[in-house]
Amino acid sequence: MRRNKYPIIENLQITEIAAEGKALGRDNDIVVFVPNTVPGDVVRVQINNKRRRFMEGYVLEYLTLSPLRCEPVCEHSGECGGCKWQFLPYEKQLEFKQRQVFDQLSRLGGVELPEIEPIIGSQKTEYYRNKLEFTFSNKRWITREEVAQGADITEREGALGFHIPGMFDKVLDVKKCHLQAEPSNAIRLAVRRYAIDNSLEFYDVKQHTGLLRNLMIRTSTTGETMVVVVFAEDKPQIRTKLLDFLLATFEQITSLCYVINSKLNDSIADQEVLCYAGKPYIEEVMEGLRFRINPKSFYQTNSEQAYNLYKVTREFANLKGDEIVYDLYTGTGTIANFVARSCRKVIGVEYVPEAIEDAKYNSALNGIDNTLFFAGDMKNVLNRDFIERHGRADVIILDPPRAGIDASVAQTILEAAPKSIVYVSCNPATQARDLAIFNEAYRVARVRPVDMFPHTHHVENVVLLTRR
Ligand SMILES: C[S@@+](CC[C@H](N)C(=O)[O-])C[C@H]1O[C@@H](n2cnc3c(N)ncnc32)[C@H](O)[C@@H]1O
Q1: Per-residue pLDDT tens for 98-117?
Q2: Which amino acids bring their CB within 6 angstroms of ligand 1?
Q3: Which of 12, 146, 301, 392 could lock onto 25 through a cystine, CB 3.0 to 4.6 A?
Q4: Which domains does the chain have, with CATH numbers?
């Protein structure tokens, strides 16, 4: 057997939660990051990465379990890639997220901060997601429990579930997922059973063979359900039978769609989605506003917390009715439409053209006539000329992707000099970097995290910047 070139640390005390959901301890003053641990754990660790100032490793043995730990609700905890913080009580998760926001903004941003307002926790800690995407695979992951029970690991009945972290070709067959309300579990289990009973082939991602690739389920707070089945090739008879089976079994399905994706990767962003039965969209409602969601549209995945996030955003924007607002990185224009009735006009910019079509549609659907939406890359669209044409913004709302905003976009915003900037971020580390750019001209007036994703380390954070 090949010896590991890195050492084993026999007895590591975990003392802190670090960024990205890892926890850390110290070995002779060297920081050691270890996933799947919490402060209070004592662990035996195999190091697998050693740098000058830190090491990374994984747990070989838990010597003492932290008193902070609780029993995970899900049988897949520890093996599934989602919900990695299930072993922490929800109040502790919120405490760690709140601290993480403070640490990131103060350490990485180096800006002066007001007191961080209490994180808004999710009322629902289970069944809070409105969208899940499952993968079919002929390489079912054999769980540790099955191995311990002496299972026949050559048994390869197809799986329908989530990828094992770091293993693109292994999929955990999910028995019950606690993330999405019914009929989500029932639909996934029924589709898998139907596929096995009818000898439909589950996809092999290495060989690129097999028929069934992905299953997406979207549910709305209005009780609608969308199902999208992704096939690797078009076999109309088989496809029709499977889709008819779904329709006959689940009267809750209001939108049944399919995609034929014969590409090498799973993304359906560039594929045609065909509606087989029902409507080609579902609707979400927020404060009386209706939002039409197509199979490919982005919509915040925790609907209740999206409402809280937008309320914080609107409160921070403090609109009186006569302002020009820019909603940059507008997605399908949900924030733009949400604040439109509180101001003179809203300009939304986003680079996905279909999302901009949705944004326009949603304004029209709600009788909102003071929004304008533009598709294009932010650094090309937002320039002096654009600002002169549409009017200087009094308030700029930013909700960029995890990478944060481009330095040139920050410069254009500085030149535009709005009275305030409301920065919504799903990554406090890049948000901190960007706040440092604004620091000379803007002070951080308010900070409020919102938890969109219970049982994960992810946190959404809203910052209000006001001109100095
Ligand atoms: C976090 S989402 C914003 C979601 C939206 N505010 C909402 O709440 O539904 C970020 C959006 O930025 C868009 N985006 C990413 N990079 C961009 C760029 N360089 N220019 C314009 N839009 C971009 C993405 O397509 C995505 O819709």
Answers
A1: 999 999 999 888 899 999 99
A2: 298, 300, 329-332, 334-335, 350-352, 355, 377-378, 399-401, 426
A3: 12
A4: 8-64 (2.40.50.140), 93-124+302-467 (3.40.50.150), 131-286 (2.40.50.1070)
